[in-house]
From TrEMBL:
Keywords: Hydrolase, Signal. PANTHER family: BLL1128 PROTEIN (PTHR43037:SF1), UNNAMED PRODUCT-RELATED (PTHR43037). This is PHB depolymerase family esterase. Gene3D superfamilies: alpha/beta hydrolase (3.40.50.1820). One of its GO terms (cellular component) is extracellular region. The lineage of its organism: Bacteria, Pseudomonadati, Pseudomonadota, Betaproteobacteria, Burkholderiales. Residues 55-86 are annotated as: Disordered. NCBIfam families: esterase_phb. GO terms for molecular function: hydrolase activity. It comes from Caballeronia calidae. The keyword Hydrolase applies. The keyword Endoplasmic reticulum does not apply. It comes from the Bacteria.
Length: 407
């Protein structure tokens, strides 16, 4: 216990209070109470960003990955094969006086042309290597021609490597971890000539909750988002309320003012995965995420259109219920997958990674399929609000303030 931390005794009491049972398990996976002491990080007065190469030959991916379990569909390559080798890079990113580690997958098809990108946010007790192995997103990226970035939450920030999705300072556009991840995204867009209309974010557990935060606060950056075993925006503002929301899925959704007064230009399309046997994050949280997106879309009273529902029974894997939601024009805007029998694990994942279950439908393939339906229309996402909750500027290229030397 840190005797100089005035909340240290409260942290210890909170940890011991929830040491057992489902909510204690939730704390282990999803929330690190030791981060509460710095619950309101301030927006940096002056931000300097840069990314540096730190490629390690030992990090190079195996050219022939192990075969997928029989329950998961094979990821098939799109287009003609390339003569280049894919790259699995270790890199560092400087932001607000701190250095952040991340991994980057560059597919073999890349030769400087503009490709789409996915930002992948790992869960608690995971790291980028583990998350990439379990989700097999690199294999999907190789097949479909995506760059994939994996920011890392270090133990120096959270002993359990949890993203601090529940802290107020990490739920606004211009501060905290949300701002850092968005800045890294913009840096990679500039560095790799990424197609900035096709940038996506996905996450699992605490990473899924942080992906929600990014989708709500940065609709001008991310064309769509995937949330696996996560929670809705604003259901918690400190560790105790976070544990309660995870345990019962009944936290109150609190969206930023700009998302409710009409000044937010778009609601980010979402695909949501959750297991109905998840004892770490209650499956009701998946329903809340769908409700949250409805509110962002301006549909407070009910669905704009009744969802199309598909139920699939399988002989070798988990059955699931899939709901597809459409807007008033009949365009699909979100999907919800409830996997029957799945716990707190990535559906259809590979056992090389932690918190995966190969018996479920292949979430990675479905996420990529969903993403390929959406791209930003730059003329439609110019942000005109001056609401401090979002910090949008009226006439600036959204990448302009993050341009810096790359070396």
């Amino acid at each position: 216990m840190n005797i100089f931390d005035p909340l240290a005794s409260a942290h210890a009491a909170l940890s011991s209070l929830f040491a057992g049972g489902p909510i204690g398990l939730a704390a282990q996976f999803f929330v690190d109470p030791q981060t509460v002491a710095s619950a309101n990080p301030q927006a940096p007065a002056q931000v300097a960003t840069n990314a540096t190469n730190a490629t390690d030959a030992s990090d190079a991916p195996a050219m022939t990955p192990p075969p997928l379990p029989s329950a998961a569909p094979l990821i098939k390559r799109h287009g003609s094969p390339s003569t280049n080798d894919p790259q699995w890079l270790s890199r560092h990113f400087g932001y607000a006086g701190q250095t952040h580690r991340f991994k980057l997958y560059v597919p073999s098809v890349y030769q400087g042309q503009s490709l789409p990108m996915i930002v992948m946010l790992h869960g608690a007790q995971q790291d980028p290597e583990d998350f990439a192995a379990g989700t097999q997103m690199n294999e999907a990226a190789e097949a479909h021609g995506y760059i994939v970035a994996y920011p890392e939450q270090p133990e120096s920030v959270s002993l359990l490597r949890c993203w601090n999705w529940f802290r107020p300072g990490d739920q606004v556009r211009e501060s905290g971890e949300v701002s850092m991840i968005a800045a890294l995204t913009r840096e990679l867009i500039a560095m790799y000539n990424v197609d900035d209309t096709r940038v996506y974010v996905a996450g699992m557990s605490a990473g899924g909750a942080m992906a929600v935060n990014l989708a709500v606060t940065h609709p001008d950056v991310y064309a769509a988002a995937a949330i696996h075993s996560g929670v809705a925006f604003g259901v918690a503002d400190e560790a105790f309320s976070a544990l309660c929301a995870m345990n019962d899925g009944m936290g109150k959704i609190r969206l930023p003012t700009g998302s409710l007064d009409g000044s937010q230009s778009r609601a980010v399309p979402l695909i949501v995965f959750h297991g109905d046997a998840d004892e770490t994050v209650h499956p009701r949280n998946g329903d809340q995420i769908v409700t949250m997106r409805r509110l962002l879309q301006g549909d407070a009273g009910g669905m704009l259109q009744l969802p199309a529902t598909y139920v699939k029974e399988t002989e070798t894997g988990y059955a699931y219920t899939r709901r597809v939601f459409h807007d008033e024009q009949g365009v699909p805007v979100s999907e919800q997958w409830l996997v029957h029998g799945l716990g707190h694990a990535w559906s259809g994942g590979h056992p090389r990674g932690t918190y995966t279950d190969s018996s479920g439908p292949h979430a990675t393939c479905e996420i990529v399929r969903f993403f390929e339906q959406f791209a930003l229309k730059r003329e439609a996402v110019e942000c005109t609000s001056t609401n401090p909750s979002f910090g949008f500027s009226s006439s600036r290229d959204p990448r302009q303030r993050w341009v810096s030397a790359i070396f």
